[in-house]
Fold these 4 entries.
Entry 1:
Amino acid sequence: MRGREMTLSFPPFTKAVVWLLGINTAVFLALSAFGTAPVKDWVELYLGLVPSMTVFHFAIWQIVTYSFVHFAFWHWFGNMLGIWMFGASFESSWGMRRFLELFFAGVIGAALTTIVFAFAHILSTPATVTIGASGGVFAILMAFGMVFGENEIMMIPFPFLIKAKYFVLILIVVTVAFAIGDRGGVAYLAHLGGLFFGYLYVKFAPARGISGRFSLSEWYYGLNNSYYRWKRRRAAKKFEVYMRKHDRDVHFDEHGNYVPPDDDTRKGNGGSKSGWVN
């Protein structure tokens, strides 16, 4: 799936993109209007990603909620622009479910990467706070470079075009360089985590998406069918026992299907087995 006919100029506002933009914008405006210092401290501690809180206090929700928290305008604006400009292309091509899977794979993967490096005391500590949707955005950027790599992107504000795959390659090199240089530390670790998990999702996720392959309805019907097959085998065993008590032998196979007796001596049909006739 290459999608060379796609363009990044004024992409549509697709459903999932609108929801992500709306939630992030609502939180950003609320924090801008009512975010006093105590409120912001509380939001960082309980809704941001704080590895020590996530691990020791079981604040598991932080691996998702941190991605909806932005305090600075340009941080919020850059992430929203990335979700819209690149995410809308994916949602239009892949559908809402798979696009959201990709986004949250990046968000959660970036959180896990940050936590691991924090406890290893590499560029951060378990008390360091991470906020923002950059992990999800970088997963989208990585996926875009892999799937729509031949598409050309305008390098705003520079007046030239570059193929998406080269843009993502430059992005990776710059991100690694900043991470090694400890400029922004944990934020760049989250970016690298988003890039890595975006790659994993595109490379290994099923064509129908993870939730499509392991959907709740398929699991339910599979379990339901297994239950009825077990009931049929159990009933067959009970019937065999009942018939033996009445001096008759009947047999069922391992699936609970009736096995007809061999009637070759009575029918004279060359040893064939008789069965039910409809």
Entry 2:
Amino acid sequence: MDAIKDSFATLSFPLFVPADRPERFAKACAAGSDSVIIDLEDAVASDLKTSVRRIPRDALPADRQVTLMLRVNAPGTEWYRDDVAFARAIGFDAVVLPKAESAQQIAELRAALDPGQKVLGLIETVRGVARMTELAEAADRLAFGSIDLAADLGCENTQTAFLPIRSQIVQAARLAGRPAPLDGVTTATRDPEVIAGDARHSHEMGFGGKLLIHPVQIEPARAAFRPAPETVDWAERVVAASVHGGAGLVDGAMIDAPVLKQARRILDRARALA
């Protein structure tokens, strides 16, 4: 469980792979992301949702170095309970709960899983937004489902439209003492600038990573979270100037405790994305 512990405490860029494409599982696990989400929900047609649970065991690499999650169908659907039982039987590291709307849902999910399995709650409905604080406290980590929320609200899925909600999700996670949440997917897969721009916005808002739907999105997303060399240089000089404690000067500016904290976070992020 060391891998799952790391993925839920640090920057993370989970890669979705459809559950009905088992030939892609090993490739997804080797694509360069820290975690993979096998998707039983949006990626699978209704008439296949039962059969896809018969995943060949050799489709999942035994020596994988990534966190392996399962996105189940939403609570209240006819597939949910069997999906959760499947997640426990196979031993997935975590379950992604779509359309999370209450702490009770998450508590019931935990009760149906083994103690070591984590829960990633997806905020993607208006009701989920309204109960964001309790969801942050109940889940191990939150993620933002911007596409579904746009459909629920009847609004455009733009950075401007969701600026306040993204800020609320980050604040809720911080208040609950949870890792920074993961931002939603970008549907564009052929233009690295689009995914990079979205990921830069995610980072600016305080997210701790981003959900991905194609391997080509991994490096642009990671690069957008990676501090620039000059920023790393500044952070290193700030830490060096503060080695003896108290305030100091770097580039003519006063360095105090909040600035030092920021510098250390920058260096942690640089190491995580090296």
Entry 3:
Amino acid sequence: MQVKCYEARLSHETDKIAVITASISLGAYYSPVIRAKVQYTVYAEGGLVIKFDVKVKESAPPLPRFGLEIIMPEKTENMRYFGLGPMESYADKRLVAQMGVFSSTVTDNYEPYIRPQENSSHSDVKWAIVSSVAGHGLLFATTGQDFIFNASHYSAKTLTETAYRQDLCLSPLTYVYIDYKQAGIGSNSCGPELSPKYLFDEKEFSFSFRLMPVFANDADPFEEIKRS
């Protein structure tokens, strides 16, 4: 699906905040599947809150996922998060994961399946920090609802378009994914289809999270989520 922006405007402004509102759609150019209002609230003290109000076409099939891809620069290698880990966890693949604070590198946060595919996302995340070795990075924090977090040197597009893992080319960039929800993984390749309870079939939903620049060694993400 392609993103089309119909409007983006400054809808509210004070000494402390500026609110930018955009109207977008996702789908084929002539046939939108998703329409959304996106609100960016930028704070003078630093950081912003991104909020999506989403409506999905009634006739659309269940979605695989919905969220935001953020591309971070070279040498953004460290990651730390509070959620289910340390292994990947999904709606139907999570019983072995535990809730806690986990640290890894972006390189190690990758499961080398023979056929490249979605991997190593972490569910029920309340905050995540992705930073350089020097500590400069971004904090992603809940505004009340947990999210799904992933960081990788491979984009979702690359994983979709590459047939075999030996054909993957490691990117120096870091792709961060903050998802509202993902459908379950399922096992239709070697078993039954995905159970209906793990389908992502909501037709209307809202989703928001906070994003702010931090120095990883000094940041206290637990304090930050109290302010969100």
Entry 4:
Amino acid sequence: MRGAEVGRRIGVGLMYGLWKPRVLGAWRVPASGPVIFAVNHSHNIDGPMVMGVAPRPTHFLIKKEAFVGPLDPFLLGIGQLKVDRSTADRAAITQALGVLENGGVLGIFPEGTRGEGDFAALRAGLAYFAVRSGAPIVPVAVLGSSDRPGRLIKALPPLRSRVDVVFGDPYEAGDGSGRRTRKALDEATERIQKQLTAHLENARRLTGRQDTLE
């Protein structure tokens, strides 16, 4: 937990130094207890941006390919979780559940990889963690600018451009039955997708952005 707090402080400095974050709805994040952030993923800065602007330290599940060279000990040191997406990574699952059992915040990109960032296709991992732990999900929409003049690095917003981060209302993914069957997880995934899509549409209206890449 201390490592994640250090990561949050580093994220604050980097994100506010390089871009102009505008944060909406941070007050909706529960002040204590386990929480899962479900974040759309269209930019490489999505994770660091949420880490920097969220009101609580966040432990993100991050693909193992990102843990290269000096980034490996750095990411582990700031409380981030390495996951092998090619298999059912038991170690990562145990660590993620441990974060929630200890009342922490787990960050997940439910689409599984960087893409359109529109929550169009979700993996079952988010539903599994939510149903298994009982932790509420807080949808997070990161709306930035990655295709305008001034962009120096592909898939990154231009430096000093505005990036909006919109936190939604927390909600429970389960149906109250406590079931963890494949059917129950599929049904939970469907409910989650509707909630996340609705949040993204609302975030676009609030910020005046029509697309995550606008």
